[in-house]
Fold each of these.
Amino acid sequence: MDFYYLSASAPCRSVLMTAKAVGVELNKKELNLLEGEHLKPEFVKINPQHTIPTIVDDGFVLWESRAILSYLVEKYGKDDSLYPKDPQKRALINQRLYFDMGVLYKSSAEYYYPQYMHNKPADPEAFKKVEAALEFLNTFLEGQTYVAGDHLTIADISILATVSTFAIADLQISDYPNVDKWYANAQKVTPGWEENWEAVLEAKKWFEAKKNSKQYN
């Protein structure tokens, strides 16, 4: 299975962890977005939206990370534990996935990407949305070990990829005690966590070098 990705990307890392969980080996093809590799004709032919992550599974092309997560489990999972077929359990997982996409990940991307990718100043109003998203997650996790149900699911994996990225910006997860407790457990029980964390640390080094370069230029 070909996997077009960028290791610094949280959505891409969620696919890496889910693939690990279901035992799928990925043929990794990292794209340098800053160099415009995602805009090359050969990739645009595969994915007209030229977004990552994108998979090609024996000719079947799919993008959007959360769609990929559910596909991997439904096609390759040994059981349905990561994405249960029970309508209510699945609905809750879907809600958390949409929350990640439309609130948690979205708020973090809108706050951090302009700073790290375009050297923009931090926007305090945008940061308030990050804090609000984490407060929501903290509420969801009240009395819960997992974000959707009583065991690890793709909702945990998707949100874990997002939350771990906050380490790049030194955001204090400990300010959100339920999230902090969930985060510590998720690191222990999620397959592929080590690779995810290595990618986060590499991204942090890159962003810090870019920030220092900006300061001294």
Note: The CA atoms of residues 209 and 215 lie 10 Å apart.
Amino acid sequence: MKLLNVEVVLNRKEDVQQAESEDGILKELDDKTTSYAILSHRWGAEVTYKEMIGLMKMEEQKRDEVRKRDGYQKIIKSCEQAEKDGYKWLWIDTCCIDKRSSSELSEAINAMYRWYQNAQVCYAYLNDVDESVFPTEHDNSKFAKSKGRPEWFMRGWTLQELIAPKQVEFFNKDWVPIGNKQRLAPTLQGITGVPRDVLTDGLVGKRLSVAQIMSWAAGRVTKRVEDRAYSLMGLFGVKMPMLYGEGKNAFRRLQLKIIKESSDHSIFAWG
């Protein structure tokens, strides 16, 4: 996996004369032997891989535009938190995958659950939470677009990003810490339907039906229809190639893949 060098990112925040190479800002490392933090968030105006490695070589006007994006500020704040917590490396899906390469994107999506699982800590950034405490109750006035909950809980990809990591720290829109997965497990169970023991200990060793795991994803949405299937692969421990453009056939392929590896026919309850 390609990881951001936290020190380099923060140093170049001020030094516009410094033009690092790709090797300086991002480095290919083994997720099994490297200590790193990882970000979980709702996408908005983000910074791409190409922009991240070429930021200091851009014309000043373009560079300033990139730096003003919410996505760039997320990168900086995530790096600051990682540095504070003692981590030298950080992974963010927006800028650590070269999505121009279909093979790199496919490899990353198939490995993503493992990457979140092997991270020392996951920072869950709730960009629509103003308060300095975790929002434990439904609030349709504040979260009208996401069924009374922070939007992070309604997205397809964030389900595995909640379950896979050993440690998840939640932050509000100003990067104030508002709780962690272990302490908030009872509340998170009520919000997501994921059992408390799965939240605290993970999926390993649990006797869970396919239908039960699928039920956790019910009501969650993804921008692309294929991601409804791709975002669930890690939860079922299956891998398959990414074929963006295949539409709903992605979910049928996921079902067939699960059937090949499981005798649990409860999957047929989900279409």
Note: The two ends are 33 Å apart (CA to CA).
Amino acid sequence: MKSKVAREKSQARQPYESRKRPNKRLQATTAAAQLASTSKPLSDASRVPIPPSDHLASTRPRPLRETLLEQIYVNFPGIQPRTDWEIIKLGTSRFEGTPAEIYAWLDESYAYERSYNEDVDACVQRLLGTPVALTGRKPGPDDKLVYTRPIPDSKYSIRLFPGAHDAAEYCMDFVETATGQPVNSPFEYELWSVPNPDTPWLTAVMTMQLRTIESAHRLKPEDIRPGTEKFVLRDGQTCMLIRPGKRPVRFTVPVRPLPQSGLPEEDVDVFDFPKIAVV
């Protein structure tokens, strides 16, 4: 015969009855229409996706809203975000389906998030106004500081284009030499960060193999959209492209002047010695 304590412990170990447990996902799906109507609607200007500008590689900080709308235009053609929250969701997510399936996914996702965060709309509105400088957006035809060099014994070129200036980030991808169209890894190769030949004793610790952003995020090659693959390098970094049976190619990323930090200038005298001493 069980004691009162034993009976209480036994009851505590019994599984929960599903009818007594709230199903948040079911509740979210059921309430999707009602909750979606409470989100702050977009203005007419924001309802139309903004096409990619001619300055996608510009590194000046811009409101996050602008950047995400451009991403939505590319990744979700024909889909118009109905709320600020949908701008965040579409601009930072991957989902494939018909327009009806995409909107149903948005409604369910929003309702589920509202089920545990009632302040989501206010948070999203503040976030979309935040200035950001992103790295990795492919350049447009009129962008500055974009450099292309043809790879010997190949129909492809290396292209360097600026990333976030404050972080001293430069990007690299491959393009077709004849057309300038970006392509994903078009041949077998390795890209290495190597010591600068002018000062190898200072940069020996920089030797390492580099990976694309997509590879670092463990995306499979077949899951990468054509022409979107890229490396993130740093201003002044020296790299070497190695191909089987081909002569290696070495290059150094350009260095941009540091952006104005707004801090007081250093109280110091600067001597302008030559960077390369030649007899």
Note: Residues 1-58 have pLDDT under 50 and may be disordered.
Amino acid sequence: MEGEEGSWEKRLGEEEEKIFVSIRVRPLSEKEIARRDVSDWECINDKTLVYKYTIPERSLFPTAYSFDRVFGSEASTDEVYEDGAKEVALSALSGLNATIFAYGQTSSGKTYTMRGITDRAVMDIYKYIDKHSERVFVLKFSAMEIYNEVVKDLLASSENSGPLRILDDPERGTVVEKLVEERVQDKDHLQKLLSICEAHRQVGETSLNEASSRSHQIVRLTIESSVRETRPGDNTSSSLVASLGVSAHLNLFQQELD
């Protein structure tokens, strides 16, 4: 594990800022299998997706599409996270702002995939924190939903969950006014906050899904860290001096394509 951790940290130091695009092909649903439908897409390798022309009207479109990584319908969420999201998620621990963005039509598997990625990212972040006792980490959590062009705080109580305003701050950039940001106590507390957000999301029935997530969701985890040092003349580790501060955001975002 130490070797794996060191390898992604080394790659982060060598690579410039970039966008990594991956595709996950969902398996056929039970209804589609019952209708004896077939998938229109085939992964011929880990970077290429081929359209098989079951719809004549699409015969003029390209047949093959290339991406940074392609995951077939048999790929597990573990595989998607390890090869497509882990390095991005953990880059926030090195002071880089990172965003994992899921985009697709209704019932394409965005919520399912992002739940799995979020759970695994939380586990890895806390594994890293536990191994680096020489640093002090502070985690802060916020979450919002955009539904019918209205921004809602997913952590706010029902009586305080009215529309929020988006403002341009000269120092901080784009901010959401009065968005609740809660300091995270531990891993269990973070999982509880995620559960609260899930319960507050808008869902609705579609032709493909009886409980589709009918909104855009943004979850932000702010990670701040500083070197743990002992004050001069103090032999106890409880006295801390903040230095070499690192702060970064990990954004987990999914958008509905209608």
Note: The first strand starts at residue 22 and ends at 24.
